[in-house]
Fold:
Amino acid sequence: MSNNKKRLCVLQVTPTAPTQKHVELFSNKENCDFYFVTHDALHADALQYCPNTTWTDTRNVLADKVPKNYDYYAFVDYDYILRPLGKLGPLEQILHDLDKFNPAVLTYYPGNGMTTPFAANITYRDSKEYSILPFSHCGLKIVHHSLMDWFFPMLDLFGGGVESCHLFNIQEIPFIKNVICGHKMIYDNGVTDVNAPHNTDGAVSKYIMDLMWDWINPSFKKSKIIDYYARNEQQKKDSLLIKQAFVDLAIQQKFEPATAENNIDYFDIKRISSFFDVSHEWFADKFDK
Structure:
């Protein structure tokens, strides 16, 4: 890492102003900077004002507009409360874990207000310091610089809702043992947006997820895993089956987090091509850049 390159930047989508606690934790630090965009009101310090946009749109703006001189890009929802369980503060814990693993993606254990059975599983949380926990919430993703073009822009072809987050998690699969979940810090969901599409009509969101899966599924080469978990042909069309399969695999086979060298380039077409047919329209442009 060069002298003018910081290890981390934290990126936030927020309605009108950045979360003050996040600014205090991450802005203008020795090894971290903070950037944000707004969608409900102009703000003088925002990278951009993004009215009438989806959550996915604004994530894509952040990824596009942020300066490209960081090792890691941390996307953290404005309403997330970071709660360390050890001796380190949030920034120190993140930097410690990045240095320990040089992960493809780093996230943390879900806490209060998160819709996942793991949030209530305190026994599992406290049983280890790190785990492989596939299909974590997209509200907190810390992405290695070499994978920014792999994950971004996120999918907006189907509306930019939960299906975009689901595809992000599917795209993590080639790097699954380098997608690290830290247990020394948890994140709580401080605010639930009752007007968000996935909260107003979950059935529609699931239908769109299934449409997305039908579109991307032909490119997924590990179909035998899907076949094994599906009870019948109809269930293979269920967009959540791939999540169930890989969460079960990670837990049952006790996947262990892998470390990588500091200079790793994760954007390896050979590695990715073993999981996906990269001639699919979603991937083709990513390798033409």
The beta strands are 6-14, 32-38, 70-76, 80-84, 105-110, 130-131, 140-144, 179-189. Residues 193-199 have pLDDT under 50 and may be disordered. The CA atoms of residues 219 and 277 lie 5 Å apart. The domain at 6-195+256-267 is CATH 3.90.550.40 (Spore Coat Polysaccharide Biosynthesis Protein SpsA; Chain A).
